[in-house]
Specification:
By secondary structure, this protein is an all-alpha fold. It has helices at about 5-50, 60-75, 85-115, 120-160. The two termini are about 45 Å apart.
Length: about 160
Amino acid sequence: MKRSGILAITVALTLGLGGSWAIAAVQDSQRTRQQCQQLVDRVNQGYAQTLAFQGSDATALNRLAEQLNTIAHSLRQLEIDRPPLRRTQQQFVQGYRDLSQGYRGIVAALEAADEAPQNETGLQQVQQAQIQVKEAGAAAHEAARHIDQLARDLNQLCRGN
């Protein structure tokens, strides 16, 4: 075979393989964008539920805690296979669980205070419940701050794709 024939075959193979690589890269990028969008949509659902929250009694807080736990579960169910997005997904799941747990801690303390007898022992129980509300509130606040940071990180990660 002549040099020009070998060169033509080499160029054709290179372009063909390069074209396959380019198509794979585009498909990979599209899949990453799709997974980013899925994560962003679920996270936004959690934000919306938190922002729409109305109430301060134990029943309302317990309902919010359950909604946040449902968001954590729905986040976990997403089929994310891109490693950085998968790590972020797992961190969001834990963040929403922690936030839910913080609210459940507040609920438990409020219920304990409501059930306390009206005597010296009851006063001590109410004081202990106040401490528990502060601790659970601080844990919920920290979980919310972590979720906010994760959201900023997710936006940055997804902007790069």
